[in-house]
Amino acid sequence: MINWILWSGAAIKNWFIDRGWVASMRSQLPVISVGNLAPGGSGKTAFVQWLVERLDKPAVLTRGYKSQLEHRRPTLIDSKTDPKVCGDEPAMLAQLPCRPMVIVGKNRRAGAQLAKDVGARILILDDGMQYRYLKRDIEIVMLSKDDLDGKILREPPTALKRADLIVIMDAYD
C-alpha cells in the first residue's frame, strides 16, 4: 500500500515533468545524478565520494536532509561547518582531503547556479534520482541486492529506465 501511494505521487510528478508542464532546468555545467529507488543507505554517499576524488572542481549538491540548511537558500559549506547545521553526510564530504565544494539546500537549481558562480566545473546531485527539476547528463542509480525484494521504494522499478548506469553495491555479500 505504501509503495502504491509513493509510486502514484512520483508518477504524477514525472508525467508533468516529462511533458514539459513542470520546468526542468538545464545547468550550464555537466550534471551527474547519483540516486536510488529505496530510501536509506545504498552506498550513494560513498559513490559520490569516489566521484569527487576523481573529478576536476566538482560541486556536490545535496539536500542536507533534516539539517538546519535544508529549507534555506543553497549554502556553500566548508570543512569547519558543524554537522548539526548541514547534516552528517555533507559535512563528511566537505572534510575530504580533495576539498570538494559542497552546497546544501533543497533547491538544487539555485545550488547549480551558486556552484557555477564559485568556480565548479561539474555538478554531482547526491540523492538526485527523484529531483527531476534539474536536468542531468548522467543518471547513476545505486541498488542494494535487496532493494527490489519487497522493500518500500520511492518509485517503481520501471524508473530504472531513466538510468544510464546501475551500480549494485552488495551483490557479493
Concise account of the structure shown:
27% of the residues lie in helices and 19% in strands. The chain has helices spanning 2-18, 44-52, 83-86, 88-94, 108-117, and strands spanning 31-36, 58-62, 75-77, 101-104, 122-126, 138-143, 165-168.
Describe this structure as you would to a colleague:
The protein is globular, with a radius of gyration of 16 Å. With 173 residues, it is an alpha/beta fold. The two termini are 30 Å apart. The model has no long low-confidence stretch (mean pLDDT 88). The chain is built from five helices and seven strands. 36% of the residues are buried. Strands 3-4-2-5-1-6-7 form a seven-stranded mixed sheet, sandwiched between helices. It has helices at 2-18, 44-52, 83-86, 88-94, 108-117; strands spanning 31-36, 58-62, 75-77, 101-104, 122-126, 138-143, 165-168.
Mean of residue pLDDT values:
88
Strand content: 15-25%
Terminal CA distance reads 30 Å
Describe the largest sheet. Answer: 7 strands, mixed
Side-by-side strand order of the widest sheet: 3-4-2-5-1-6-7
Going by helix content, strand content and strand pairing, the class is: alpha/beta
Radius of gyration: 16 Å
Low-confidence stretches: none
Q: Tally the helices: what do you get?
A: 5
User: What's the SSE pattern?
Assistant: HEHEEHHEHEEE
- Global morphology: globular
Helix content: 25-40%
The number of distinct β-strands equals: 7
